[in-house]
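This is your field. Have a critical look at both lines of this record:
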Amino acid sequence: MFWRPIVAKVLTYSEAIEMSQHQLLEVNAAIDLQIEKDNAANR
């Protein structure tokens, strides 16, 4: 879960390393929501 926002270019490594695990989970949840929204728009 740490690398996903970095690979997705949502966060930099420096930003991610400073975040708590809870904050990283929230970022990952936001990525999931965006993916669901994009998929629904493409249907």
Summary: The chain is about 70% helix and 0% strand. The two ends are 27 Å apart (CA to CA).
